């Protein structure tokens, strides 16, 4: 059984509890153990970097140090947490000065980080570490005919880690195909949802959310699958406000990719956190039919 | 052994003298063993400086000379010639580089002077062990191999052939003409490309001095300047060139078509037996074996059935031929490939139907192209009412190609003009970062365009998408770009988008360069001997380059380079013989154990093994003096002339002069 | 180099540890601004802002709303042909603006960010209810009511935390932060 150090992030405590629940259910089913980092702290999201860069890296460093102590790779379901952890680890490794500053601070909590922990987004665990074949094996209720808009968002692919193709990733589509669904050509799959702009620059965020919803509607998507709690919250919880602002009539369910995988694996909807949405996902549930 | 060494320390103005205390170095040198005279002088390379050496050799009977100055790349030749003029063998001269290796690397005067002493000492200690050597005379075979028959190769071939020299012109495709044959009009004159190219093509095809091998590739190259042996694979056309009249009935009757991804850039089709274009030279068609029903399933044979010649010109049994040629020089003119723009997904090529590459568009506007010169969308019918032309696709971009591709601004302007000409009401947008029009008549061409109603938008296109955001965008391609001159993001709804992709090196340029034993740069373009002063020669003697294979360039520049390479070759042919450096390896027969380790290591295949005596021998003329075998021989049986062990070890000991004498001064 | 640095030099210093190329390598191609999904809301596009920085137009840059609209989606950074970290620049300008208190009062971003940071330092994890006052009163009446409506729904669905979080090693956490704060502070 493969094991990871699990960093849920602040949103998964309550706001995106369903993401946490569906994550735990699906990984367990697939033989992956996620051991939560004990006493993890906020990663700083994007907002901390607006104020103090060094302290922001330190916050992330504490979580990385704890993962290193556990001896497992770090896995983060939230794209912002993932991005922060990945790059903090990378910068610490190449910049001795930064490492010294941060380790000096970490000493206060009896921690040190030497840069040897790999950081993965939760989707990488499914798409790369487990692989599509492994997931297909566990699918009992293929989501045949379900038109999914695979919404990557921004921070799961950007900034570049190496020289990979960031303009045409296909791993999310492949994952959806593996669970029997039909990923649609979603033109804005890499476009930002606005993140924290929903608070600080609401006009811009609503415009971005509207464009995303419209794009999904144009592709006849029955559901938008997300990989980040901010994306999910923005697209779902503010859909009503978008309709109000722009006179649109969107009613598109927004689900976490883990929930869709869970449905395809026959896991009961309650366990996947389904029931706390603003927009009903009942239409999606009908697609999870047991295959013969 | 006592020699009389003359040491000359150059100031090089302030280049050396500013950092190195040249007077001190010169004085110090004069006190060293074997040194007869030491001088310092402002500019050793000047006539007066050279005279110092010449006079000293004559008057003081110098037997060795050391000049401490710049890099051998600069003036080794100068000072060797000076020695020779004074009657001293030029290989009894050694150079110490106290500029590029010393004064230009540091501001620390103490350290620099100390290092200069070390370098000079090394040169002195080495030079006393040097032997006089005589250059090797090499005959130049008057035949020339030219690889690639695009406009650069054709220019080179005609220059040489018209001057009475024999040329073997090898072309990979079934016809000569290269990319230029695909173009419609050429900037800035808007001459029809085929009209100006085909006369040259006909010339080549009919020239008595040109052996034209199309549908052929060079497979092996052996030898050296003046004496190359090349193997050319003449691929089977399955058409008998002796009897074929080029009537083309076989092509008419062939029942099968395939997409032509080469000449028609995927926009049109051709038959399975085909000529790439009507004015192809030579006229003989070629059968595409991978798609021919006869070769796949043994059926059809329509071409053979309808061929009117007696005997029949279709020969399914034809085989590839390997032809061998002896040539004196080689010119590579292998051209370029257009970048694969699916590498830039945000421009939508391949996903969005009406996004075209420049080469596709050239074929479209070409009168003999797949649309008979009509500008239409991917449905091959509807004319676009609005077109956006995107400059700098994959050029000037750290993420793809850093360089500017030279020609795209001009042809993008050309496209705008052609669209206005054929669709007078069309809206045309050129989205650019800069308009680069350096050539003769190019800026004037741009001015002409400025009066034609093209919308010039200064901004590099960010996205080409079909995702609608605003009314009026339905069914269109939207080009999203910042109009930097007004500082606003704009969305341009258009029917068609033309991309101007980067000009890249041929996909196999690295393999080709290895075949001819010369180098490629980081991007895959062939490396010239000197970017400013010698753009058509390479570091390999006897191999020259011309045209886009050396770097992105337009037709006039390619023609110039083709002619330049031809002139260099003609000069060598005219000389008849050439002197080559005697820096060669030789194997001591007594010491050779016959282990043959050196045989396979030699990059120039210059070592032969004599089975009867069971020893190896270096073929002096083929040897390029790289030293690999010298280092590898476990019996130390191989000597590298002018780089003997004795010379090299003396040089090393010379550098360590201050450590040797336990004056540990950090340098 | 005892002279006061120019504004462009100041910004270069801010980006000293950045993994992108210097701002001076900008060829003003406009790819960033063409790509930016919120460019239409900015008073100066990202490209223009970089031009202004290179021209030392300090006041205009600091008054601009450009970087407060940046969602840090990094699309500009990955496409920039000169490989400048433009999103990183936006972060740097936000920090500069907050440290030197040069931001306009109408921006919600700065106050929200400061409140967020304080709440993290206090309890180690984010707690949405404590953030609300930092922005909700800057909204107009209609938006205030809308936000209250959304918040109520979230609460009813059990998606808003009720109690503030607490770290186990809260003391250590604060000590850790204090080891950085004197260093991180700019004056």
Please tag this protein with its features.
heterotrimer, B: 667 residues, five-stranded parallel sheet, 19 helices, 34 strands, 28% helix, 23% strand, C: Fumarate Reductase Iron-sulfur Protein, Chain B, domain 2, 12 helices, disordered C terminus
pLDDT under 50 segments of chain C (min length 5)?
183-187
CATH architecture annotation name of the largest domain in chain C? Orthogonal Bundle
Tally of structural domains of chain A: 2
Ends apart, CA distance between termini of chain A: 29 Å
> What gross morphology of chain A would you assign?
globular
One letter per element, helices H and strands E, the order of chain A comes to: EHEHEHHEHHEHEHHEHHEHH
DSSP summary: helix tally of chain C: 12
Give the fraction of residues assigned to helices of chain A. Answer: 40-55%
Tell me the CATH topology of the largest domain in chain C: Fumarate Reductase Iron-sulfur Protein, Chain B, domain 2
Low-confidence stretches of chain A: none
What is the CATH fold-level name of the largest domain in chain A?
Rossmann fold
Report on the biggest sheet of chain A: 4 strands, parallel
Largest interface: A-C, 69 and 63 residues
CATH class label of the largest domain in chain C: Mainly Alpha
Mean pLDDT of chain A: 93
> How many domains comprise the coordinates of chain C?
2
Describe the protein's topology.
The complex is a heterotrimer of chains A (292), B (667) and C (187).
Chain A: E1 2-6, H1 17-29, E2 32-36, H2 53-70, E3 74-76, H3 79-94, H4 96-106, E4 119-121, H5 122-130, H6 132-137, E5 147-151, H7 171-178, E6 182-183, H8 197-200, H9 202-218, E7 223-226, H10 229-237, H11 239-246, E8 254-256, H12 257-264, H13 282-285
Parallel strand pairs in A: 1-2, 1-3, 3-4, 5-6, 5-7, 7-8
Helix pairs in contact in A: 1-12, 2-3, 2-4, 3-4, 9-11
Chain B: E1 5-10, H1 22-30, E2 35-41, H2 47-60, E3 64-69, H3 72-85, E4 93-97, H4 99-103, H5 109-127, E5 136-139, E6 144-147, H6 151-162, E7 167-170, E8 185-186, E9 191-192, H7 193-206, E10 210-213, E11 216-224, E12 227-234, H8 249-253, E13 257-260, E14 268-271, E15 273-274, E16 286-287, H9 293-297, H10 302-306, E17 321-327, E18 329-332, E19 336-338, E20 355-357, H11 358-365, E21 386-393, H12 408-422, E22 427-432, H13 442-450, E23 455-458, E24 463-465, E25 477-483, E26 488-494, E27 496-501, E28 503-505, H14 509-515, E29 543-545, H15 555-575, E30 577-580, E31 585-587, H16 597-601, E32 607-610, E33 615-618, H17 628-632, E34 638-640, H18 645-655, H19 657-660
Parallel strand pairs in B: 1-2, 1-3, 3-4, 6-7, 6-18, 7-10, 18-29, 20-27, 21-22, 21-27, 22-23
Antiparallel strand pairs in B: 5-30, 8-9, 11-12, 12-17, 13-14, 15-16, 19-28, 24-25, 25-26, 31-34, 32-33
Helix pairs in contact in B: 1-5, 2-3, 5-18, 6-7, 6-15, 11-12, 12-13
Chain C: H1 7-14, H2 31-35, H3 46-54, H4 58-63, H5 66-69, H6 75-79, H7 86-99, H8 108-123, H9 128-131, H10 133-136, H11 141-156, H12 170-184
